[in-house]
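User: Could you write out the 3D structure of this protein bound to zinc ion? I've included everything you need below.
Assistant: Certainly. Input first, then the structure.
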Amino acid sequence: MSTKPDSPVAKKIVASPNHDPRESRIDMLLLHYTGMQTADEALARLSDREARVSCHYFVDEDGRVTQMVAEAQRAWHGGAGSWKGAADINSRSIGIEIVNPGHEFGYRDFPDAQIDAVIALCRDIIKRRHIARERVLAHSDVAPTRKKDPGEKFPWGKLAAAGIGLWVDPAPIAEGRTLSANDRGAPVEDLQKQLIKFGYGLEVSRLYDDATRSVVTAFQRHFRPERVDGLADPSTMDTLRHLLRAMRAHH
Ligand SMILES: [Zn+2]
């Protein structure tokens, strides 16, 4: 990598050897948390050849931004996943690791200084790379059965207020028809079709199976974070409908 970061928001380079050539055009921005006890430990792992993981940018809790892999290269942050039917998420995305111990080690609020830096970085990347609003995603969106990051504490609404990511205010939680494990039939099929249309990797099985529950959970972490339980309640389904409408309105 050159000695100058690709983004002016990054002030430092810590080069990771874990990258290779892209096989697609960049059209997606993927946000992660580090999910390790300390930032130093995460930085060490992301630059360890043996670990075979990396990211393009690393954002400390105090807002310092470090670049680890050149944007032109494929960094190894996404693993197996899919969005809108496409796999090889790493080839099409820029990956940002945001320091937070995560669900395993004491998940905590993301400090304002860190979020301000994430916002500045995302704005710069989106502008330079022309990334569509609905393609700024959580790792959990593209790998819902494996991943929880950056999780329900991540302030997507605040990012949206700064023009980053597709967002609608979540529909209020209310009683009503709720789909849950082992439900089957047309209502489940409708839900699955809407989730697939939005982008999630899912099969239309007409059965509220584990895969469906995982996708609904991922959807809630990102778009209806007040309650993350994997149940398709009216608020979850309304929020999804509103997002699909907002997505159409952007095209
Ligand atoms: Zn991740």
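The longest helix spans residues 112-129.
User: Perfect, thank you.
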